[in-house]
Each structure stands twice: as C-alpha cells, then as structure tokens.
Amino acid sequence: MPNTQLSGPFILTKARFYDKFVDLTHEQSQKFRTVVHSINHDELLAITLRALKGAQLRVSSILSVAKRFADLNGTVPFEVSACLYKNFLKATARDTGIYTKITFAEYLYYSINYEQCKETYNAETLIPTIYSPTLPLGRVMGGHIALEIVLLSICQANARRLNETEWLDTTPDMDCHAHIMHSLLRYQLLTFEDVQEEFERIMLYVTGFVLDTVRALSCGGEQPPASPSQGV
C-alpha cells in the first residue's frame, strides 16, 4: 500500500494527481515560455545554439532512463515495469525519433543554420545532472519534464520564424508522464515533492540564463556571465 504521507493526497485518484501535475507544469513553465516567445531574432538564435548541446545529449540520456525503468522489474511487477518503459519511450518519441523523421537535435541544428549566429557558448550542460543514475527518480522526472518544456518552447519559437507548422502545437505528453509518476508514487519510488523541487530548479535556472543572455546581447553582444553551477 502506498504511504499517503509520502505521496500526498493527490494520489487518491489519477484525475487529482493529473490536475496537480498540470498545475505545476503550467505555473512554473509559463514564465519561461513568455520570455522565449517574446525575445528577438538574434536572442533566439543565441538561446537555440546553447540548447543544441543539451538536445544532442538528451537522446542517449533518455534511453538510459528507459533502461532504468526496465530494471525496476523485481522491485515492481513485470507488467508495471513494462508499462513504465513503454510510456516513457512514447512520451519521448520526438527526442529519439521513433515515431517521427526528425529529432530535437536535428531540428535545433537546422534552426540555427538558417542564419549565421555569432554567439557561441561552451558551458557544461545540465543533462548529466538531470539524468544521473544516482539521482532519485522523482528528481529525474521533474528535471526531465522541465527540460522537455524548455526544448519544446525553443522549437516552437523557432518554428514560428521558420513557418514550420508541425511544431507549433507540440506539447509534452502529459498523460504518459502523469501515468509514470502515478505508478512510481504507488510503489513509493518517488515523492511528488522531489518532482516539484527539481522541476522548479531547472525552470528557474534556465529562465535566468535566458534573461542573462537577453541582457548581455542588448548591452553589446557580450557573452552572459558564467553560472556558478552548470549551464543548459
């Protein structure tokens, strides 16, 4: 039986859990989306270039997390482990290219080459931290979903400038992510507090980076100051 003190009251029904999850993602991601969708052409190119490195690393990281779900067989029933694995791959199909002809990395590479971009950033990426095999599953899921919102928002902003309508209505697969976390909560393999903490950390960090980049470019195109931790 799930530990209700650990899981929170929203685990009582899938619908209530889903509502809590949607409220979290909408509230925290809205600020980032507003910033990205309102920046100018050069600023978007600089942000996209920075995101490219993360998008490339994300594919292999996603596969490693999918394997981590598969390896839960023995901790949870085989059917649950298989369902987690299947839902995670379905939710990340755009990254891995399973159901589409283009991945995040390919799209971002294309988008930064339609115009010369002078900005270059070589900061380390958040990817290894988010998907670390030693990180609790709650924090992995929170960071994963936050990063997915970041990359999708950048793709959508670029799509508007490129008139690539395929990307304009693309959103994270909330149903799959909610099902994954609901299952993990049921078996006490994560806490929603972990999910929320990591989600907010990534969204605040990336939003801060975007704002720093916008300010730097508006002051003469200087590179934004290096973060004391790691970059995107």
Number of β-strand runs: 0
Measured between the Cα atoms of the first and last residue, the distance is 38 Å
In round numbers, the mean pLDDT is 77
Order of helices and strands: HHHHHHHHHH
How much beta, percentage-wise?
A: under 5%
- As a percent range, the share of helical residues equals 55-70%
Largest sheet: none
SS field, number of helical segments: 10
**Rg calculated over all Cα atoms:** 18 Å
General form = globular
Which spans of ≥5 residues are poorly predicted at pLDDT below 50? 1-12, 224-232
The helix-and-strand class reads: mainly alpha
Kindly describe this structure.
This is Tetracyclin repressor-like C-terminal domain-containing protein. It is a single chain. The chain is 67% helix and 0% strand. With 232 residues, it is mainly α. The longest helix is centred in the N-terminal third of the chain and has 30 residues, at 41-70. Residues 1-12 and 224-232 have low confidence and may be disordered.
What's a concise summary of this model?
The chain contains 10 helices and no strands.
